[in-house]
Design the sequence.
């Protein structure tokens, strides 16, 4: 079981990279990049997660089955968030199926607003 | 490691692997897989909150920026660094057991990890939550709207609800993690770990690193969201 063990040097390198990325994400937050502030923050967060998962959590040395299980978990999270957003962000596309009478008024309400 | 199948004097009191497994490698994989399955339920648990956060932030982006400005980046960043250090010491504790270092080394790394975890919680409790309470920005505990928020005030309060629930749930995981580390330290002191047997360290390490990953996302999503430059933050 010890044939997979990660050298201490690798841990130190990962640690330094994580600290560097923390500094980077904090610094970038003070620069106005418009919507890309969020994009950069998330890209850095994903990069940090990958470093932790691959090295500290030994995923780089894990079996295929463990990897599939982890990827399936993240995939399910993606389903949860994307399908919820697909609902939430598109509700205004169509009139709400509310009470029979009020929905008829909706086009007028939109014009008035 | 095929050679571990050789019967050893340890075998009676300290079997290399439980009888239902073919070998040690299979046992280790089963343990890792089981822990990851648990961690996936945790991902979905936290995921529900992240999902709600994404929706509210997409609906009220400006209020979330105002809310984010209530948090102190320096404490968030410090705690991120503290957690990363604790992940390193946790990884080193497992590494020490794997390469057969003395139990003193394992215990030292575990204790440092625990102290870093306590530092994280201390900073959170005193410098952040307690001061938030004094500043009346804890929803449900004397929350007071501020004039500069205008019509966004209810959504700023909503941001603070997300902040306290997400960081609170994370802190609860840290407390549980420190409990697990205490048990590991006692086990290490009782000579339970060696280069042949360190599964509890390995499995608990996965949990500790997972809690670190949650914070890796919480830090930018709560402390660093858009507009730090417009007011200069804190």
Sequence:
């Amino acid at each position: 079981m010890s044939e997979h063990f990660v050298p201490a040097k690798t841990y130190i390198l990962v640690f330094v990279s994580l600290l560097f990325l923390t500094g980077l994400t904090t610094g970038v937050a003070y620069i106005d990049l418009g919507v890309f502030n969020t994009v950069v923050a998330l890209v850095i967060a994903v990069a940090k997660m990958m470093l932790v998962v691959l090295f500290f959590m030994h995923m780089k040395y894990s079996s295929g089955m463990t990897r599939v299980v982890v990827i399936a978990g993240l995939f399910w999270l993606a389903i949860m968030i994307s399908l919820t957003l697909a609902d939430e962000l598109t509700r205004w596309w169509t009139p709400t199926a509310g009470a029979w009478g009020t929905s008829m008024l909706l086009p007028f309400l939109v014009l008035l607003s | 490691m095929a050679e571990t199948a050789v019967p050893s004097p340890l075998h009676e009191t300290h079997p290399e692997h439980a009888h239902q497994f073919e070998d040690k490698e299979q046992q280790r994989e089963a343990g890792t897989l089981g822990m990851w399955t648990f961690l996936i339920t945790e991902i979905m648990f936290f995921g529900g909150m992240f999902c709600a956060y994404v929706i509210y932030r997409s609906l009220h982006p400006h209020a979330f920026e105002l809310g984010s400005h209530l948090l102190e980046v320096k404490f968030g960043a410090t705690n991120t660094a503290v957690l990363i250090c604790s992940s390193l010491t946790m990884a080193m504790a497992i590494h020490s057991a794997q390469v057969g270092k003395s139990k003193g080394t394992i215990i030292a790394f575990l204790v440092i990890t625990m102290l870093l975890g306590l530092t994280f919680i201390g900073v959170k409790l005193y410098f952040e939550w307690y001061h938030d309470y004094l500043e009346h920005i804890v929803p449900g505990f004397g929350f007071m709207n501020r004039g500069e928020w205008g019509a966004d005030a209810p959504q700023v309060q909503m941001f603070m609800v997300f902040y306290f629930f997400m960081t609170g749930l994370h802190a609860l995981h840290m407390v549980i993690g420190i409990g697990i580390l205490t048990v590991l330290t006692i086990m290490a002191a009782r000579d339970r770990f060696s280069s042949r047997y360190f599964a509890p360290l390995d499995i608990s390490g996965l949990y500790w690193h997972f809690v670190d990953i949650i914070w890796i996302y919480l830090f930018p999503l709560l402390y660093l969201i858009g507009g730090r430059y417009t007011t200069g933050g804190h």
About this structure: Chain A has four helices and no strands.
